[in-house]
Amino acid sequence: MHLLPTQDEVVQILRDTGALRDGHFEYPSGLHSNEYLQVPLAMRYYQHARTLSVGLSRRLRAHAEIRAMIPQLSIVAPATGGLPVAYGVCEALRARQVYWAERADGRGMRFRQYMMPTPGENVVLVDDILRSGSNLTEMRTLLESNGAEVVGLAVVIYQPTPETRSFGSLPLYYLAKLDARYYSDAVSCELCKKGLPLEKVWI
Ligand SMILES: [Zn+2]
Fold first, then answer.
1. C-alpha separations of 5 from 85, 116, 172 in Å
2. Distance 11 CA to ligand 1 centre (A)
3. What digits encode the pLDDT tens for the residues 38-49?
4. Terminal Cα distance for the chain, rounded
5. What is the pLDDT of residue 178?
6. Taking a C-beta distance cutoff of 8 angstroms, is the pair 85, 120 a contact?
7. Ligand 1 centre from 52 Cα, in Å?
């Protein structure tokens, strides 16, 4: 395995660990798809987590502006799924700090008590996957409303759907891009037409 794993090597890790599954899935939004990905199933194996986060750190390091910020850089995750990636990236880059937000029953995303970005702080947002982008969008808003400057977005897997949010000109780094087939509902779903059993997924 290279320091920067190829798309095929990343996909192989996901398949070997059960993180990437073929079938017929329904997302909470109602989308149907032929593929489902749950990256934590790969990240539970420390060596794989290390391979993926070191690879992602090298993508970030290749960006001259971000490289220059590393000693002051914060690596921030929008949820616990991004934590192993955030710590791995921070360690490999020797960046300054890692923190994350959480959701408290019904209220939006927030930081732990006394955990706040400082004004002008440079932040790379990190997560295991970019799919809808809703968590990352909320995280970005929370950081920017507290004065931080989000300078990039880094995810292990980019799996865009027809509903993925735009991040404008924010640089996006990823190790592998997966193109699943998506259907907006059961009526338009070819897998439903074939009568394939449907699995509902939570996230
Ligand atoms: Zn279907």
1. 15, 34, 17
2. 24
3. 999 999 999 999
4. 30
5. 94
6. no
7. 31
